[in-house]
Specification:
By secondary structure, the chain is α+β, with helices and mostly antiparallel strands. The chain is 33% helix and 19% strand. The chain has 7 helices and 10 strands. The strands form 3 sheets. A 5-stranded antiparallel β-sheet has the order 1-2-3-5-4. It has a 3-stranded antiparallel β-sheet with strand order 6-8-9, with helices on one face. Strands 7-10 form a two-stranded antiparallel sheet. The longest helix has 18 residues. It is globular and about 55 Å long. It starts with 12 loop residues before the first helix and ends with a helix.
């Protein structure tokens, strides 16, 4: 499926109202028809899109409030449902750039190891104890009405708080190339670390080309595990 370019985006009335006369610019468009808008040249951001598993403003608002005590994440301001039925979430801006945009896309030798280190920092710093959400195999299979044995035997659990969508665009880098924040945290919850590692590795090919998995795993500080990676890649694609 092709994604229409950002220059075709029309600013919705709800986003214009939230901007209150400040400049508005679409900065990201996803595959479900949602758009992220910058307001006031990055002072605030508004995610705006249709109801979908990839964007539910209510749980993302709550997760952002919770996780920001432990790692860098956008501070949520408010959220709701627009008159046209689209969901929206407004957050305070962070002076950083997605790891797949601008000059960083052309410097995978710098970015990819940092992505691995950044995911490890997330797993190390966000505590499992006290996390009120889960992103377990069972929960994800049930969401798609799949039986527990749909993917075969489950691997042993190495529990961390998972980002939930640890694909490369959801890591924000500062001017020196260090990850300072994480975005798109609507599916954050307790699961296996490979539930994040698998999609992170999968997205390397989409964003930087082949051959970067060893650099990411070295940055994270973990040996390859083809069994875990295969299981959680299949779970990602199924659920």
């Amino acid at each position: 499926m092709s994604i229409p370019p950002l220059d075709t985006v029309v600013v919705p009335p709800l986003v214009a109202r939230l901007a209150a006369g400040r400049p508005v610019e679409p900065v990201w468009r996803n595959g479900i028809g949602g758009v992220t808008f910058s307001i006031g040249e990055g002072v605030e951001y508004v995610k705006y899109g249709p109801p979908h598993a990839e964007f539910d403003a209510d749980p993302e608002f709550e997760r952002l409030r919770w996780v920001s005590a432990f790692v860098g994440a956008p501070r949520p301001i408010d959220h709701g449902v627009a008159p046209d039925g689209n969901r929206w979430l407004r957050t305070v801006g962070i002076p950083a750039t997605s790891a797949v945009l601008g000059r960083w896309r052309e410097r995978p030798e710098v970015v990819v190891p940092e992505l691995g280190r950044a995911l490890r920092r997330f797993h190390d710093r966000v505590p499992v104890d006290g996390c009120p959400w889960d992103w377990s195999i069972a929960t994800r299979l049930r969401y798609r009405n799949l039986p527990d044995d749909a993917l075969g035997p489950w691997p042993p659990l190495d529990a961390v708080v998972c980002h939930g969508d640890a694909c490369n665009p959801n890591f924000l880098l500062d001017a020196d190339g260090r990850c300072v924040a994480y975005v798109d945290l609507g599916r954050l919850g307790v699961g296996d670390r490979w539930a994040d590692l698998a999609p992170a590795l999968l997205s390397l090919g989409w964003n930087f080309g082949d051959g970067w998995e060893p650099a990411f795993l070295a940055g994270y500080g973990i040996a390859p595990d083809p069994v875990q990676q295969d299981f959680y890649t299949r779970l990602w694609n199924a659920a």
